[in-house]
Amino acid sequence: MRAPAGVFALTFVVFLVAAVARPALAENRKISDFYGAYTGQSISVTGEGLSARDLNVEIKKTKQGFNLSWTTVTRKKDQSAKRKSYSIDFSKSPRKNMWGSAVRRDAFGNMQPINPLREGDPFVWATLKDDTLTVYALLITEAGGYELQTYARALTAGGMTLNFTRLRDGEQLKSITGVLLKKK
Predict the structure, then answer these.
(1) pTM tops 0.85, yes or no
(2) 72 CB contacts (<8 Å, ≥6 apart)?
(3) Fold of 5-182
(4) 21, 156 in Cβ contact below 8 A?
(5) N or C: which end of the chain has fewer CB within 10 A?
(6) Are residues 132 and 149 in contact, defined by beta-carbon separation less than 8 angstroms?
(7) CA neighbor of 88 nearest in space, from 172, 169, 151
(8) What is the end-to-end Cα distance of the chain in Å, rounded?
(9) Residue 150: strand, helix, or coil
(10) Of 117, 116, 120, 124, nearest to 91 (Cα)?
């Protein structure tokens, strides 16, 4: 009996993570350790089966902190592709290894954080602990509950791993794991 193609894809991703995702030295990490461009793939397991995604991430220095830009391309069964891109500036906060987002411009052209009480606007912040840069996006739902998306990007010897989760009112809706290699 032949194994389904999805089993081979998942096995490949697990092998790739094991081979490439050796933890990098986590002592005294700085945000500058994450600067660079990364490319890779992820696999998510959903109720509809496996879903492959192409990933691109770029992290670079700005005057106030850093910019994180990422693009995700999801391949559908009919071979079409869905592309989503995001770019967020993060500025230093008074708390160590924590940055606030600034994704909107005010009337004077200054970047400012989003108000999570406005419909569809998430509040976004980033933290750095050991070898992992984690970005949180908190959205207040129309019913007054919450949705929390977490993007944990951990440095490895050759790039980074991505662990993404999406929770709504405490229930996990999605989990995605990926491996990205740093571009030279």
Answers:
(1) no
(2) 53, 54, 55, 83, 84, 85
(3) Lipocalin (2.40.128)
(4) yes
(5) N
(6) no
(7) 151
(8) 43
(9) strand
(10) 124
